[in-house]
Amino acid sequence: MKLDLYGSAKGGIVKLFEAPTEKERKLTCPGHGMCEPITLFHLGFIDFSKYFIVIKLYGLESTHERYHISDIHFFVRPLN
Known about the structure:
3 strands
């Protein structure tokens, strides 16, 4: 997985970081067509009014042999 994070403010876009990672994430798919959510990153502070995130996933070439992936959803969860 590789993450690139950009912040946008006052009409400009700033690349905040590029984070290649070797950390492996494992999907758990108990059935019913749904997999358990996984956390890809944590944004600890908000300095920009808008963020753009580029996520590149690697090593999924053989995934289609075991699973049918029709959608990938991303969501933002507020802290409790």
